[in-house]
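Please check the following for our workbook:

***
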Amino acid sequence: TKTYRLEGVVKTVLDNVTMKLPSGKSIGLLGRNGAGKSTLLRMVAGSQMPTSGHIAIDGSVSWPVGFAGSFHNDLSGAQNVRFVARVYGVDTDELMAFTEDFAELGAHFHLPVRTYSSGMYARLGFAVATAHIPEILIVDEILSVGDESFQKKSNDLIQDFQKRGTTVLIVSHNLNKIQEMCQRVAWLSRGELQMLGEPAQVVQAYRESSQ
């Protein structure tokens, strides 16, 4: 359970959500805006703590892809990458080289992140998160970012991770993409878990609820 208190008002974002996600699978998270998807991923990533209950994780978790606030806006992309390398204890030069090449930011790589478009920000985040192979990869709504070439490159890399046994948690409003990439899908609505199961069944139920 996750609640926030703002000016004396308590808002429950996740309400007693209980589920066990399989290792080595791709799990999609569906739900309308405000359903609690990103909050759940932030708690899995460790950037937020539950108000009650606990999350048990078996494996290393990636730098969260797509989360606003993942980087320091006054630092350049390159400076942020150096910081992430120190946090994760990985080789700085290797992380820098991969990120600069994969993100395709050109000269912007050395400019403050606050000057980036949303697509550039997301490309930087995706490159940082996938520069090494985590056991759990968290991707929050970036599969439609960038041009067709970058989308294909990103999808190919995620599929490569899947083949290597990485658990992938994906938030996306693209139902076709969720069905194509995931082996399990969880549907959240108003902070509650509505359904967890086979992609086709969950997506169909989600579509019917939106009609």
